[in-house]
Every structure is written in structure tokens, then in C-alpha cells.
Amino acid sequence: AVIGAVAYVGLDWVAGLLWFLGKTYAFVFLFVWMRGTLPRVRIDQLMDFAWKWLLPVSLLNLFVTAAAIVIVDSVKS
Fold first, then answer.
1. What is the mean pLDDT of residues 12-35?
2. Angle at the Cα of 58 (from 48 to 67), degrees rounded to 5?
């Protein structure tokens, strides 16, 4: 009955606002919890991770995406 009344009165945006605020609260809680739980990452560990994992994966993503675009364009025409 409340949902029907809210839609009838013109407050249908309230559900979206509550959903947005709930998700925002959940993510902030998760970030604060993880920051308090996990140890800090040293800069040398972060750079090692970036050079050994993130750079190769990003280059692979770039080449796979380019190949997919070329293949899709060749199939279309």
C-alpha cells in the first residue's frame, strides 16, 4: 500500500534515492573496512605488481580488442 501511495503522490524518485544511498553506504563501508583490515602496500611492491602484471595484461587487452575489431569489421563487409 505504501508503494502505491508513493507512486500516486509523485514520490516515485524516493526508491531510487534510497537505493543509491544504500549502495553508496555499502561501498564506503567496504572500503573503510578493507583499509583498516589489510596492511599497507609498499611502493616497491606496487611498482613490481604494475610492471609485472598490469602492463602485460593491459597490452594484451589492447591487442585482443584491436584484433576483435578487425575481425568483426571483416565479417560485416
1. 92
2. 155
CB of 21 within 8 A of CB of 29? no
Tell me the CA distances in angstroms from 66 to 53, 54, 61, one per residue in order.
Answer: 20, 18, 8
Q: What angle do CA 64, 67, 69 make, to 5 degrees?
A: 110
Task: Report CA torsion sign: 55, 56, 60, 61.
Answer: negative
Q: pTM, whole model, 2 decimals?
A: 0.54
**Percentage of the chain surpassing pLDDT 90?**
74
Pairwise CA distance, residues 43 & 40, whole Å: 9
